[in-house]
Structure formats: structure tokens, C-alpha cells
Amino acid sequence: MTTRLRRVFKDLAFKKKLIGICLIVSLIPMGILGIFFYRQMRAMLTERTHTALYETLRQEADHIDGKLESYLAIMDFIAASESVEIALTKDYTRNYDMYLVYRDTVDPLLETMRILYPGLIRITFYSNAQIHPHGTSLRPLTEAFDSPWYEKTLSSAEPQFTFLEDQKTLAITRQVYVSGTKYVNLLAAFVDVQSILGAVHTAFEDDFGFLMLDRQDRPVYQCTHLHGDRQNPALSAEQLLSQNPPKDYVVQTQALRTAGWTAVLYRPVLEIRAATAKLVCTTLLLVLFSSLLVFFFGAKLSALVVLPLTTLAENMRDIENGNYPAPMESDRRDEIGRLICAFDAMARQQNHLVNEVLYAKIAYQKYELRILQSQINPHFLYNSLSLISSRAIRSGQKDIHQVAQLLSTFYRTMLNSGKTTVTISEELDNVKSYISIQQIMHSDSFETVYEVDSTLLECKIPNMLLQPLAENAILHGLDNKETPGIGILTVTCFAQGDDILFKVMDNGSGMTKEQCQNIIRTDSRGYGVKNVHQRVQLYYGKSYGISFHSIPGRGCCALLRIGKTCELC
């Protein structure tokens, strides 16, 4: 995997490498700072949550203690009231007298306490004295036998605090000692839990849990506001009080001085992480924005470095393809500037050497052609052909006269007074003379068709381009024709864009694909097809020259492509 990544990095463009390096170099410290900042903020928020929980729980514990102390004070006041003691111990002779005591003494006292303390639901005396029950103020002791607070109240001299089963009511109970009597009297104040613990439910707006434990660490009250119970389950007393509490929670405990209870407040750590989510998003956005800035400025700055290298690489590619661009100039004094200057000097020298070789090769080709042409003495040849023609006319030999005339035309256009360029019209006259001679030599065994664009007749081209193609078509194509019918040689000239195309087609024996590929590579005696192909490429470039297309047994087509707009035209 590492080798593959290294290979991909090596194959990247230089500009992409620079941008990638800028991104990596900038993102690594940003990422480290972001992680450090996030961890520090989370630790700080966790510490603040511990402090907030501690302060909240301490305030709630003081509030609960204050409430409980006020209710105990009420009960102490009622239990110490002389009028209440008289009401509970007096021997009544008439029920009406008992009613008057309850109405005028007990009920006003209890009702006043309930009005002063809205959280007080009711206050009830439970007694086994010989008195009649009266509303909720006085009830027989037997009604308290099944109450959860009865046994512990009866067995203790201390006030007792008991949450009823519905968890909505708190029973504060105590014994009322009346001197000189054998009766059992219990005083019970039933308080709305919300008046004592209501502030706990609004301590936090989000997830938290609250647990109240008695002196034996048994849960007596619990409320939870946990969202998503699977992620944040409520904790038990054993989990909260263990030596290794759950790490996913922040836990604080506080003892209540009045009731001897222990209040426990806990909150999931996920809530702290949720509080940091906004911070994380902000950090990620900053990192993303910084990355975009680094990418933008990295692309802009890398262009200053890469642009000269890109231009240098393009020039190298052009030179590799044989094109020599304009010289490069650079005022840079760094390594890239020195490299550009060195490459420019090398390109100039190479261009100079190539031109020398090219001109030398062209000159050599011209020299070869002139040597070939100089092998014939023009004046002697023309005089000889004129003598043969005149004597043929005297002897009535029209065929000999025609051949002599054609030969005279052929060599006159071929030699062209030593010039190497002719018009297309002159080149066609030359090839027509040659083909006519061949027709006479072949007893008119083939026909010739000419299709020439007349607008091209005055365009100049190198001489002796078509005759070798016509010779090849006659000698290797039509002479070896095996199919029935007369042979047909077609010479076509037309324009295609900025190029001029010549086609020399025959319906002779044709060639194989390998023969078509080798014909322009093979040296032949005299002035052959290969020589024409090389001359054309020297004049016009590598994209020009001769190509052959043939079907064995059906014929062959030689396609010659030259440039229309050139220094010859």
C-alpha cells in the first residue's frame, strides 16, 4: 500500500505535489492544535460541570434542610401546645364539649399552619385515647398500623421522614408525649414533595438524575430526566456509591443535616460532549476554511514556481516531436532560471545542428538529382531524337516519329534546364509523355484516365514526383495483371484543405500489406518511389509523402500528399 501511494505521488503533476505538500504541512499543525484545543475545552467543561453540580446540589440541600426544619418547627410547636395537650388528655362528659374543643382549638391551629405553609397537605393526630375521630385532624391510632412510617416512628424518639409509595407525598412523623397519660399519640405532617424537592426538577434543562438515600444508603426518592434511556440509563444507589462509579457520568453527593439523608446528583458525560459539539463544529469549519485558504494561496503561489517549469516541459515535448518553438527567456536568478537558460542554449545549439544536417541532406539530394540529370547530354539527346523523328517521317514510320517526339517532351520536362521545381501542368506533361511511350511499348494494352483540378495547374512542386509512381503501376501492376479485361491507369490530382493529393491507381495484380509497407523503404535502381517519398518529406515535413493501399488481384492505389502553401508555390 505504501509503495502504491508513493508511486501515485511520484506520478502527480509538480503543481499538485506542491499544493498537496502545502495542505499536509498546514493541516497537521492545525489538526494537532484542534485536538489539543478540543481536549482542553472538554476537560474545562467537565470541571465546570463538576463545580456546577456541586454548587447546585449544595444549594438544593440547604433548601431541603430549610424546608424540613420549618416543618419540624411546626410539629414541635403543635406538639408543645398546651391547648393541644389539654384536648388530647381531657375527659369529656359530653360529645358536644369534645366538638367545641376540636372546632375552637385544634382545627384553627392546624388550618393556620396549612395556610402558612402551602406545601403542607394536612396534619393529623393519631391516638388511642378515648376520643372520637374528627375529620383529618384526629384519627384513631389503628388507622396508622399499616402505614410505612408507623413502626419506625413508634420505635424512635426522633422525627421520621418517609416518602409514601406514590413518591409525591412526604410523611414527617413523631411521637407526642403527654405527661400523666398512658395513651400513644403520634403526630403526622403530610407534605407535598414538590414543595421540598421541586427545585431539583428544574436544576438543569437537559439530562440529569437525582437520588435521595437514607442513613442505611437505601434509596428513598429518585427522579430522572434522562433522554435516550439506552444511551444514558438511570444509575442505582450501588453504582453511585461504589468505589468505581461509572465513568460516563459526573457524580456529586451532599449530606442533609436535618433528615440524615444523602442527596446524589449525577449527569451523563454525553451531555458535556453534546455541549462541545458546537465548539467542534466551529473548529472543523475553521480548519476547513483554513484548508481552502491554503489550497487557494498554494495554487496561486505554486503557479509562480510551476509555470516556468510547465513552459519548459512543453518546449521539451515540442522539440521531442521535431518542432522548435521560440527561444525561452527568463529573468529569474534561481535554480529554475538557470535551468531555463541552460535549456534554451541547448535548444538553440540543437536547432542549429538539425538545420545544418537538414540542409546538408537536401543539398545532397539535389546533388544526386543533378548528377542523375547530368548523365544525359541534353543537346546531343535532343539532336538525336530530332534526327530520328525526321527520318521516320520520310520513311512513313509514324510510330517511330511519335515515340521520338514523346521522348523529346519527356526528357525536356524532366531535365527542366537544371531546375528542381516545375508546375503541376509541366509535371503532368512529363508523366503523360512517359505513359504514352509505355502504351506504345505495350501495344496499347492499357488505357489512361486523367482527372485533374485545373485550378492547381500553376502551383509549383518538386519535379519528377509522378513518373516513378506511374512506372511502378505499369511495371509491377498492369504487366502482372491476371484478371480479364483491359488495364486501366488513373492519374488524379485534387486539393484537400491546404494539401494537394495525387492518386496513381491501376487495376493490376495489386500487392500484399507487407509489400505496401516495404515499397517506400526499399532502394531501387534509378530514381524510385523511396527517393520521391524522402524528397517530399524533406520539402514538406514528416506528415507528407507516399502511402500505398492495395487489394491483391484487384489493383493498387499510390497516394502522394504534398503541401499547397509552401515556399515552392
Question: Can you put this structure into words, describing what you see?
Answer:
With 569 residues, the protein is of the alpha+beta class. 53% of the residues lie in helices and 18% in strands. Strand 3 (160-163) and strand 4 (169-175) form a beta hairpin.
Topology:
Layout: H1 2-11, H2 14-79, H3 82-89, H4 95-116, E1 120-127, E2 138-140, H5 150-154, E3 160-163, E4 169-175, E5 185-192, H6 193-201, E6 208-213, E7 219-225, H7 237-241, E8 249-255, E9 262-268, H8 269-275, H9 277-320, H10 335-374, H11 378-394, H12 398-415, E10 421-423, H13 424-441, E11 446-452, E12 460-462, H14 467-478, E13 487-496, E14 499-506, H15 513-518, H16 529-540, E15 545-551, E16 555-563
Parallel strand pairs: 1-2, 11-13
Antiparallel strand pairs: 1-5, 3-4, 4-5, 6-7, 6-9, 8-9, 10-12, 13-14, 14-16, 15-16
Helix pairs in contact: 2-6, 2-8, 2-9, 9-10, 11-12, 12-13, 13-14
- Shape, please? rod-shaped
* CATH fold topology of the domain at 419-563: Heat Shock Protein 90
Number of strands: 16
CATH superfamily grouping of the domain at 419-563: Histidine kinase-like ATPase, C-terminal domain
- CATH C-level of the domain at 419-563: Alpha Beta
Biggest sheet, strands in spatial order?
Answer: 2-1-5-4-3
**C-alpha termini separation:** 62 Å
> Approximately what portion of the residues adopt beta-strand conformation?
15-25%
From the 3D coordinates, which CATH architecture of the domain at 419-563 would you assign?
Answer: 2-Layer Sandwich
Measured as a percent range, the helix fraction is: 40-55%
Largest sheet: 5 strands, mixed
Low-pLDDT parts are none
Rg: 60 Å
* Class inferred from helices and paired strands: alpha+beta
Count the DSSP helices. 16
- Mean model confidence by pLDDT: 78
